Amino acid sequence: MAKEDKFAFRFDCGAVWLNLLATKGRSFSAEPVERLATPARLAEWLERCELAPARPPGRGDLEQARRLREILRVLALATVDEHPPPADAVAALAGFLSEHDDPVRLTVDGRLRREPPTTTVDALARVARQAVDQLSGPDRLALKSCPEHDCRGIFVDPPGRRRWCPSPSCASRGRVRALRARRSAAAEANDDQVITPGA
Asked: Which of 20, 85, 125, 165 has its CA 20 to 30 A from that of 133?
């Protein structure tokens, strides 16, 4: 089995905005994995999401993308955990969206398309609006959080059957831990069933 590239972008979380959250891996560990390390990496991610802006991202855009990502992470976790969203995160997202209007202009080029965003911030505003739509509507009920304490990655799970996020390492670690717990429980049960002599 090929080793997982921890710096590879993830596009399997179920929505572009959730894929943005996944640009930081193991977010709650002592050594998180930053996949948006440079403006060039942000440009690559936007390109693969069909959100490449007319002007390439700069260092300030990278910082804005990371800030937005962490605001959305806080709001997503609150939604999944069914907790009230933190007021400061709501205010930060509302402020960001109010500053970045991005009118919808449609084109047809073999299929229906939206005009590319002019700037990276315009592209990020589209991602943020997608997040707001999902977090504030009935689709929020399909969101799930990875139970791995150092991950807590958010993903879409409409049937409610997935246990871990799409990262193979989380599922592998979780299954190994579950197997050890089952074996330990079985060993304890066997110890309890041993009949002592003379009983």
From this structure: 165
- Which of 18, 27, 63 minimizes the C-alpha distance to 42? 63
Strands (E) located in the chain: 24-25, 33-34, 106-108, 112-114, 143-145, 154-156
CA distance 39 to 47: 12
Q: Please tell me the pTM assigned to this model.
A: 0.84
User: Residue 121's closest CA among 198, 67, 184, 72?
Assistant: 67
- How distant, in Å, are the alpha carbons of 50, 147, 154, 185 from that of 166? 21, 12, 9, 28
Q: Are 153 and 13 in contact (CB under 8 A)?
A: yes
pLDDT by residue, tens only, the chain of 199 residues: 456 789 999 999 999 999 999 999 999 999 999 999 999 999 999 999 999 999 999 999 999 999 999 999 999 999 999 999 999 999 999 999 999 888 899 999 899 999 999 999 999 999 999 999 999 999 999 999 999 999 999 999 987 777 768 777 686 665 656 655 566 666 676 766 655 555 4
